[in-house]
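Quick one, tokens below. Sequence please?
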């Protein structure tokens, strides 16, 4: 009798544990709503539009970005052309109509700053920040 009672309790506990494990991986309605809100917030497009300036290796760098175009004054030399937003939306590439730019990759830092990236589009050891005017 004790053996049967022990067996029934063991089976009941085993079944309870199995049920908890499967319910642990089920998303609740609150979880789904929270994930949707996070996704919507992260999908906001960064607004690169504006004028930013600073020094890049001791040379003045002032850029005005307007949607998909830019005007740049770098060390007294003027460039204009198109901007292309990267796949993740956090950085842009400048493609001048004429000439070649060494610092043509910029990344979003915050509402007030852009970071100048190296020739390959990578972050430099010492960040070069451009401040919004």
């Amino acid at each position: 009798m004790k053996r049967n009672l022990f067996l029934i309790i063991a089976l009941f506990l085993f079944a309870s544990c199995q049920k908890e494990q499967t319910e642990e991986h089920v998303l609740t309605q609150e979880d789904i709503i929270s994930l949707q809100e996070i996704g919507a917030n992260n999908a906001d497009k960064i607004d690169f539009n504006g004028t930013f300036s600073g020094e890049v290796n001791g040379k003045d760098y002032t850029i005005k970005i307007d949607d998909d175009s830019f005007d740049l004054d770098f060390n007294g030399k003027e460039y204009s052309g198109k901007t292309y937003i990267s796949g993740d939306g956090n950085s842009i590439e400048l493609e001048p109509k004429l000439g070649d730019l060494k610092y043509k990759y910029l990344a979003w830092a915050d509402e007030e700053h852009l970071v100048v990236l190296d020739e390959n589009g990578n972050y430099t050891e010492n960040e070069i920040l451009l401040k919004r005017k």
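The chain has a mean pLDDT of 82. The first strand starts at residue 50 and ends at 56.
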